[in-house]
Amino acid sequence: MANVADFYNKNGYFPEITVLSADEVADLQTKFGELEENTGKEDAQYSLHNVHLKHPWVMDIVSHPKLLHPVRQILGQNIVLLDSRFICKYPETELSKPNGSPYVAWHQDIRYWGVEGEVVTAWLAVDDADSENGCMCVIPGTHTLGILEHKNAEEEGNLLSSNQSIPTHLLDVTKSTPCPVNAGQMSLHSGLLVHGSDPNRPTRRRCGYVVRYVSTDAKPIQDPNRPRSFPATVVVSGVDERKHFEDHSPPWFSIQAVPT
């Protein structure tokens, strides 16, 4: 897979990378379906956070060779998994307590993370995600603008737990670009890239698994006014000689050797 880093560094994202085979997609959908049933759809929208520490099948995804290969092209060989979350958008008819049409406001991931260094987010599709059911949209090049102002979203239904939103007068939304992905594909985007997604209008679920990665050179930002913790960090590639983040690897997880 050539030129992932070149395209990513210029645009702030890279679209449509196939990670999982058809059999792996079927297995993922079955296992997530069981997790969703046990959790309930209301909580499955945004509350399945860092479950890679609990379920080996989820850890298999975050350390999948075809997922990590393009991430290594951007971050290098030594990589820490920072955080992960399943994000599901359901049609309003499937939610018992809808609070506005679920959407994700324009935002930058790095605004919340408290990390010094590049954060690469993998958005892996559990279901097909397209413009109809609210796939992620990006504004290419906005990763060069620094951290923008975020305010509370005025429209109900924002899935971001902090309810943050970048005011649209700061953005050229005419440059918004959809990032459709089929189940088993992913896109990558920078923590500084402005992105969001519209509500799910059809009658089918749109679920994605969002995984954040950093180089072992990245550091937590020490801010006493806004302290952060990183309770789910795991070294998933190479070696970590820096030790800026604690390795919370589950006892059943073995890191794979970096291919040569």
Describe the protein in words.
20% of the residues lie in helices and 25% in strands. With 260 residues, it is of the alpha+beta class. The chain has one domain: q2cbj1_9rhob like domain (Jelly Rolls, Sandwich). Strands 1, 2, 3, 6, 11, 13 and 15 form a seven-stranded antiparallel β-sheet that branches. The chain has a four-stranded antiparallel β-sheet with strand order 4-12-7-10, with no helix packed on it. The protein has a two-stranded antiparallel ribbon with strand order 5-14. The longest helix has 18 residues, at 22-39.
Identify the notable features of this structure and list them briefly.
single chain; 260 residues; alpha+beta; Jelly Rolls; seven-stranded antiparallel β-sheet; four-stranded antiparallel β-sheet; 6 helices; globular; Phytyl_CoA_dOase-like; dioxygenase activity
Give me the CATH architecture, please: Sandwich
Alpha plus pi helix count? 6
- What does the largest sheet look like? 7 strands, antiparallel
The tally of strands reads 15
- How much of the polypeptide forms β-strand, as a percent range? 25-35%
CATH class type:
Mainly Beta
CATH homologous superfamily placement: q2cbj1_9rhob like domain
Structural class by helix and strand composition: alpha+beta
Helix-strand sequence: HEHHEHHEEHEEEEEEEEEEE
Percent of residues in helices comes to: 10-25%
Total individual domains: 1
Q: Could you say what the CATH topology is called?
A: Jelly Rolls
Cα-based radius of gyration, to the nearest Å: 17 Å
What value does the average pLDDT take?
Answer: 92
